[in-house]
Amino acid sequence: METVVERMGRFSADLDFDSIPPEVISKAKACLINGIGIGLSCHDLDSARAARQIIKEFEPACEKGANLLADGSLVSLMGAAFANGVLFHSRGQEDTHGTMHIGTMVIPAALALSQWTGASGKDLIVALVVGYEIAAALGKELTKLTTPRGFRASPIYGIFGAAATSAKLLKLDAAQTADALAHASAFAFGTTEAFITGTMEIFFENGLASRNGLLAALTAKSGMPGASTAIEGVFGFTRAFGDTNKGMERLGSDLGYHWEILKVTFKPYPTCAFNQSPTTAMMNLIKTHDLKPDQVDSIKIRMSSYEAKYPGINYTGPFSTHLQTIMSTGFAMALALKDRKLHLSDMWRFDEEILNDLSQITQVVADETLPNSNCVLNVKLKSGEELIEELFISPDFYFYDFEQAVDLIKTIHDETKVPIRTTDNLIQNLRNIESLDSLDSFIRSLKFEVRA
């Protein structure tokens, strides 16, 4: 009987550009513009600067390697995957599938290896689709088991996506790709405690998952075999992370039939994925009622149980890091009310009294009847009046196409001072990325002056 990694390895090795539906190719390009565009906007954030400084000092490359985006330095292959992965994740506005931010791990590995191998635009698209599908095949079934145990979905599943993407660009066959995925299962890691403490581990987790996924593929390429029962074995991945090895026949069974990349969402605001709908609901109330902070007595948001109980969502302060404010639904409500916008630069306003007061009168309530991404916002005014905004949305509410992603990136680049020429160059190249015979000059062109 075919094991999970064997099934996934076969899908990955067999997929080619001509067999991918046009809508999937379009979504992959949207993921690219969102992922790289968000990444470039993070050039000045502390975690991104720390990651590139580490790699530039300890893993520089003289002749062959891969480039750090924005900075432009040539560094080691795996160093680029790591530092660019941290870069992509530092804003907290990356793409999302369930609780995973697949693009922050798959795209950096793909860009680094595309330079190293001389891959074409079509090669990149196929490799990305493979990575998104593999990570999502695992995460969509297992996250409900692993997240309550404290394991973070992005790195523990994203590493499989990075490994599959890397295996595809390295032209590994089905058996070698299965080995790469087996190694990825052994290299997987990541916890959610940082969401409580507000410390910076989570930004580096995704960079390491990108790097380690690439390493898993290189290990397989070197001839090192991996356990065929790495996922479902008695002491395999699902038993270790999810305390079960039941129902494993479902994992990857619909690969190539139901395309999970089409379910990837994008964030209009630089805050946790679970705060997008509450923020949208609050913006609706503000627009409809010209709502002001001094009118508000209390705020209650009903969200799905899974979202409401996620670490950091119900935290209302005191705040000391921007990760705490990115995760806090209360802080998102406060910023929306006070500023009528959410910009990442505002996430450091820890000591602003009105923001802290509004955060502390916000309550998140778990509602078993609400599906994910839906919410009911109840704002009680000091006058005694209650304003209610119900956001009952279809799954495609945040399914941006390429042009919608372009509009989002232009807005973010204007906010973060990314040069217009860099933004225009990125958009122009990605519109027709499948026509590029080589990606090296395109990747090297994504450079502008950044702080050391």
Using brief descriptors, characterize the structure shown:
452 residues, globular, 4-stranded mixed β-sheet, 7% strand
Order of helices and strands: HHHEEHHHHHHHHHEHHHHEEEHHH
**Can you list the strand order of the major beta sheet?**
4-3-5-6
Low-confidence stretches: none
Measured between the Cα atoms of the first and last residue, the distance is 53 Å
Tally of individual helices = 19
Shape annotation: globular
Give the overall pLDDT as a whole number.
Answer: 96
Instruction: Supply the helix-strand structural class.
Output: alpha+beta
For the largest beta-sheet, the strand count, sense and barrel status come to: 4 strands, mixed
Strand content: 5-15%
User: What is Rg?
Assistant: 21 Å
Question: Quick one: how many beta strands?
Answer: 6
Helix content: 40-55%
Structure description:
This protein is of the alpha+beta class. The protein is 52% helix and 7% strand. The chain contains 19 helices and six strands. The protein has helices at residues 4-14, 22-41, 46-58, 77-89, 103-117, 121-146, 153-169, 174-187, 193-197, 201-221, 237-242, 276-289, 305-308, 322-327, 329-339, 353-360, 402-416, 420-431, 440-444; strands spanning 66-67, 74-75, 296-304, 362-367, 375-381, 386-391. The strands form two sheets. The chain has a four-stranded mixed β-sheet with strand order 4-3-5-6. A hairpin with a 6-residue loop joins strand 1 (66-67) and strand 2. Helix 2 packs across helix 6 (121-146) and helix 6 runs antiparallel to helix 7 (153-169). The longest helix has 26 residues, at 121-146. The model has no long low-confidence stretch (mean pLDDT 96).
